[in-house]
């Protein structure tokens, strides 16, 4: 049950269409289901607006299937699974025909809402093509949560004219996600160009002195551009989630 459905239920009680006992019975479902290996949060969507997201890495295919089955049983849609292996996707897909699997970012989406209206404008920009897995994790996370996403890939500072050729798209954005490895300079450049929040995502792309993304992380944390926030190394999901929250706040104002 999401916030909209909860409000409909409460209004039905207010209007007399449902009795308080009927509503209580509907809400009696436990706030979480204990599967032994996982406790599925049934009320996450009521609290935060989106269902619980499944982190697939280090979970067995059987555990992922069990969690998804329980979430489906509870009527949840737009179920997002991050860092899911190809093997797990094949096993889940044999049980769940609605699964959409994206192998580059290793993301799966189950029961995507067919009538969801995408709002706002989030731009996901990458320094290079090698950053695409992290970019797609961010972009697909934001799209699954109901946001309109524009992708600008391979527009890093080594060829700044590629970025400047897309200024119109950047200026229309409510949030920009800047994904870059190496020295991570893209976030500062974008922060100095746009009038909206910039979420910087350092990636582990780079040669030895990159230290697995640490150099990009420190560069982004030390950005001289105002309005730049930073998530962890390779955390495309975290960037997409935060961008969705910011974008939705702007949409509510409208």
Automatic annotation (TrEMBL):
Domain PurE per the UniProt entry, residue ranges: 120-252
UniProt GO MF annotations: hydrolase activity
InterPro entries for the chain: P2CMN_synthase_LarB, PurE_dom
Family annotation (PANTHER family): PHOSPHORIBOSYLAMINOIMIDAZOLE CARBOXYLASE-RELATED (PTHR43064), SLL1489 PROTEIN (PTHR43064:SF1)
GO biological process: 'de novo' IMP biosynthetic process
Pfam annotation, one family: AIRC
Protein name: Nickel pincer cofactor biosynthesis protein LarB
Organism: Yeguia hominis
Domain of life of the organism encoding this protein: Bacteria
